[in-house]
Amino acid sequence: QVQVSESGGGLVQAGGSLRLSCAASRSIFTIFSMGWYRQAPGKQRELVALILSTGNTNYADSVKGRFTISSDNSKKTAYLQMNNLKPEDTAIYYCNVQGTFVLGSVANSWGQGTQVTVSS
Fold it and tell me: Does residue 13 have a pLDDT over 90?
């Protein structure tokens, strides 16, 4: 069963914008946090932005002022609005959802990733 799914990636020119969406399945009963990570070729996966169930957010320094994370708790969905994209933002973007499943076990689920390519 797919627990986390992402959408919204694509090819954009430098300076452009994209909006990524992440949806958690109903099997994840309680959500503590939803986060966006990215992995560029030859590099480790890194945190881009995180939003807690309280609404608190955290961003990587490299995206502060350009990216905005938000969530709709009723839909168990998180969004990443990416503005003023740069070629160095090119990567596969993954969504991570942490919480609990219906029966109470820990959920730490990843999506399959969505490619973001920024051309110069």
Answer: yes
